[in-house]
């Protein structure tokens, strides 16, 4: 089973498998459905129905991690700099319905935000005809990740305001386990300038809220 999956990924890493792909927009924090040909996007307000879907983090496939530190596949199947967005593509290629949540972070992997949820079972029935254990699922996803390795351009596939080119590699403190290619919304990539601009925007928004509140109170007094 594994070799067939690997061959399929090598021959056609961007499969035309027709399956749902649910993605959360980084800039708006909204979840939306995107079909495989990217021709239709529908925003979803209520995501409660997806809470029982299986959660998978990039950490599970990280070659820099030990099993004790969170890796769930053999080191021979692991990759450097795994990204949740690539995992979402892999889940779609395998035929799973998938949600990509770019702002959700594993507590042991703070610098690499992002995770996916997949519909592994529905009403007690496995969604996939052959992938019926988490181990088999993880190995299949790792085959996709190995066939679609992360490059410096990979993070640009999930745009974030303020980044129009790939960022420089982060400064990794000694003894800290983290990748050198990270999602654009990673806290490890936030520069002092970005923090200053963000603080200014927040202060501006707070002033606007105060002004609106004062205007409402003045209107009430007039009435």
From TrEMBL:
Molecular functions (GO terms): 7S RNA binding
Basic residues: bias regions: 214-223
One GO BP annotation of this record: SRP-dependent cotranslational protein targeting to membrane, signal sequence recognition
Compartmental location: Cytoplasm
Keywords: Cytoplasm, Ribonucleoprotein, Signal recognition particle
Extent of Basic and acidic residues compositional bias: 201-213
Disordered: annotated span: 201-223
Protein name per Swiss-Prot or TrEMBL: Signal recognition particle, SRP19 subunit
Highest taxon in the source lineage: Eukaryota
One of the record's GO cellular component terms: signal recognition particle, endoplasmic reticulum targeting
């Amino acid at each position: 089973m594994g070799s067939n999956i690997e061959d399929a990924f090598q021959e056609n890493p961007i499969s035309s498998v027709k399956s749902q792909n649910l993605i959360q927009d980084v800039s708006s924090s909204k979840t939306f459905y995107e079909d495989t040909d990217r021709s239709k996007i529908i925003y979803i307000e209520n995501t409660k129905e997806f809470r029982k879907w299986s959660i998978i983090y990039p950490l599970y496939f990280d070659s820099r991690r030990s099993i004790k530190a969170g890796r769930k596949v053999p080191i021979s199947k692991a990759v450097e700099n795994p990204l949740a967005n690539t995992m979402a593509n892999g889940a779609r290629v395998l035929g799973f319905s998938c949600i990509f949540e770019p702002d959700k972070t594993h507590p042991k992997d703070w610098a690499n935000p992002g995770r996916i949820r997949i519909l592994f079972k529905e009403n007690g029935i496995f969604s996939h005809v052959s992938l019926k254990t988490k181990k088999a699922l993880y190995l299949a996803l790792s085959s996709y990740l190995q066939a679609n390795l992360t490059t410096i351009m990979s993070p640009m596939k999930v745009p974030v305001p303020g980044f129009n080119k790939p960022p420089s590699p982060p400064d990794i403190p000694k003894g800290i386990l983290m990748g050198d290619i990270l999602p654009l919304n990673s806290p490890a990539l936030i520069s002092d300038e970005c923090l200053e601009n963000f603080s200014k925007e927040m202060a501006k928004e707070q002033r606007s809220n105060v002004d609106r509140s004062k205007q409402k109170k003045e209107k009430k007094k007039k009435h």
